[in-house]
Write a structure and sequence with these properties.
Number of strands: 0
Largest sheet: none
Number of domains: 1
Number of helices: 10
Structural class: mainly alpha
């Protein structure tokens, strides 16, 4: 699995280089010629992004790192929407031990920990491989690529704020919002399910059935 993930991350990294260069050029222009408010916002975002993304790469899939923390927050929001019977069924299929299934809380915590570790490992492999490839294309290009990553991180953070303000607020309070770009694609199905719970409960239940059948 990891070999395939690495290969896919490498391909994704090459394909997105032109987009990152374009985003980087735009953000660089804003930093030079933008208004005071824009430059101040970019500076604040840069500080948050550099710190959180650097920690995400350094910690990888460790439970103490940003990737695992973000996944756990999203999974917790998702699992909170499910009835006890569904949580128990998913936990059994996921291999959560009987010793953890003494209450709804202990079962959900064990399930969240188990699933978040799996997702975080996959995300960490893809993120590290993709960034390592991109930043090896030359000093000048790498500077623009970093600016491009910052711009895309900013846009991803704003999308999260608009679409899932509660989750964004939790991320922001833990200085995680600018690292959301690293997990956005991987957690998209979970966030879609959360949205459907609010807008289309019938379709939400269909997704839950598919999730249960996938275990």
């Amino acid at each position: 699995m990891y070999i395939n993930d690495l290969a896919k991350a490498a391909v994704d990294g090459v394909i997105s280089i032109p987009m990152d260069l374009a985003y980087g050029a735009r953000r660089t222009f804003e930093d030079i010629a933008g208004g005071k408010a824009v430059r101040a916002e970019n500076h604040a975002e840069r500080e948050r992004a550099v710190n959180s993304i650097r920690m995400a790469i350094a910690y990888g899939s460790s439970q103490a790192g940003p990737i695992s923390k973000m996944v756990k927050i999203i999974l917790t929001e998702f699992y909170d929407l499910l009835p006890d019977s569904t949580i128990e069924e998913i936990a059994k299929k996921a291999g959560v031990g009987a010793s953890f299934m003494t209450s709804r809380m202990s079962t959900q915590v064990a399930l969240t920990t188990l699933v978040s570790q799996k997702i975080a490992r996959e995300i960490a492999v893809k993120a590290i491989a993709s960034r390592a490839l991109k930043f090896g294309v030359g000093v000048a290009a790498s500077a623009l690529l970093i600016q491009g990553l910052l711009e895309r991180a900013s846009e991803a953070s704003k999308r999260l704020q608009q679409e899932h303000p509660k989750i964004y607020s939790i991320f922001r309070s833990h200085n995680l919002d600018m690292a959301y770009i690293l997990i956005e694609d991987s957690v998209a199905p979970i966030l879609k399910a959360i949205t459907l719970h609010e807008k289309n409960l019938l379709e939400f239940n269909d997704i839950i059935e598919r999730i249960i059948n996938d275990y």
